[in-house]
Each structure stands twice: as C-alpha cells, then as structure tokens.
Inverse folding.
C-alpha cells in the first residue's frame, strides 16, 4: 500500500503550505522593514526638530549677547561727566548694568542721585530688568567697588590703591586694608560695617567679628 505522503495530492498540498509560509515570512519581513523605516523616520524628525530648536536658542542667545555687549550709552543719554565716571568704574556695557541690582546702582557713591535714578528709569523703560539678587556672593568681580555705597573718601582710597571690584576687597586681609594709604579709622570702620552688614569675610575667612574682637583685645 502506497504511503499517503507520497501521493500527488499530499505533495501538492505541502508545496502550497511551504509557498504560503514563504509569503507570510516575506510579508512579515516587509512589515518589519516598514516599521523600522517608520521608526527611523520618526526619530529623524524628532532629531531634526531638536536641532532646529537648538539652532534657534543659540541664535537668540547670540543675539542677546550682542545686545548686552552694546555700549549702554548707545541706548540711553547721560551727561558727559557721568559717562566718564561710569566708564572709569567699569560700567560701560549694558551687561555691566544688568549684572547689578537697582539698589547697587543707587549706591554708586560718585554720581548724583538724579543721574542714577535716570539711568535706572531709562533702562527699565526700554524693557530691561536688573538682577533681583546681588552677585556679591557668586561673582563679586562683576560688581564695581563704587557700588558699595562707601563715602567718597573711602572710595578714593580704594581707587588709588587699584581696587576696582568687590573681588579685590574680598581678596585682602584686614591688616592689608589698614595699610592702604589714606584708609583712616573712619574709613576702616565704614568698610567693616559694610562687610558685617553683608556677611562678607576678608581673606583667610576672617570675619568682622574676628577683627573687632582682636581690636578690643589689643586696646
């Protein structure tokens, strides 16, 4: 008796099954490739969008940097004398002013109150905002020492000694402060009061309390 597996009908059926399996695998491969293509296209679109956003951010930041590096005197009008004073103390570019708080600008000791208020009002009218928190603890080199609100005598003593920013003040010891020419007792007391009020320290983590305690011990 002939095996059923060798019959023409069986062979034909097996061939059709194998053909269908081949077609199924082909379809599955095509679907997989389509899915891969879709995923690649989706990821590519996301990357393109991200690159576009990064480019836009970089352009905006560059534009902002260019604006803030502009001379502030191209934006607002100030007296020639005031302009020279501001340049002398390191306030020339827009970014120099925007790094300060409004109160720090008001504390500039060698400019009249009217001129300081006019600068603040003019910049705010142009839509610019000053820092809400002082940079004295994070970037003291950005703040001119003229913004500390010292008297003219104390400021001039610092200026003649080459002190330009808060960083210069925080880089010395109290002993070095005392050695500054024309830095008399009143000026020293003024500086100590400023340091204590703002919880700042001299070089080597010397606090104002340390200085006052040492002075009382000596006396």
């Amino acid at each position: 008796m002939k095996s059923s597996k060798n019959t023409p009908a069986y062979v034909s059926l097996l061939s059709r099954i194998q053909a269908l399996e081949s077609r199924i695998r082909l379809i599955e491969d095509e679907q997989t490739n389509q899915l891969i293509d879709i995923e690649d296209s989706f990821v590519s679109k996301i990357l393109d969008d991200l690159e576009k956003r990064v480019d836009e951010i970089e352009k905006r930041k560059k534009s902002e940097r260019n604006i803030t590096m502009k001379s502030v005197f191209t934006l607002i009008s100030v007296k020639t004398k005031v302009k020279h004073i501001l340049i002398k103390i390191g306030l020339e570019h827009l970014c120099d002013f925007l790094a300060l708080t409004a109160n720090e600008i008001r504390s500039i000791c060698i400019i009249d109150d009217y001129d300081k208020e006019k600068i603040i009002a003019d910049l705010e009218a142009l839509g610019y905002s000053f820092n809400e928190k002082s940079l004295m603890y994070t970037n003291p080199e950005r703040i001119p020492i003229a913004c500390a609100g010292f008297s003219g005598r104390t400021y001039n003593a610092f200026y003649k000694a080459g002190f330009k920013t808060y960083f210069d003040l925080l880089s010395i010891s109290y002993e070095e402060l005392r050695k500054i020419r024309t830095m008399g007792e009143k000026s020293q007391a003024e500086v100590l009061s400023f340091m204590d009020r703002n919880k700042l320290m001299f070089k080597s983590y010397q606090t104002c309390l340390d200085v006052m305690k040492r002075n009382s011990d000596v006396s």
The CA atoms of residues 84 and 92 lie 9 Å apart. The two ends are 130 Å apart (CA to CA).
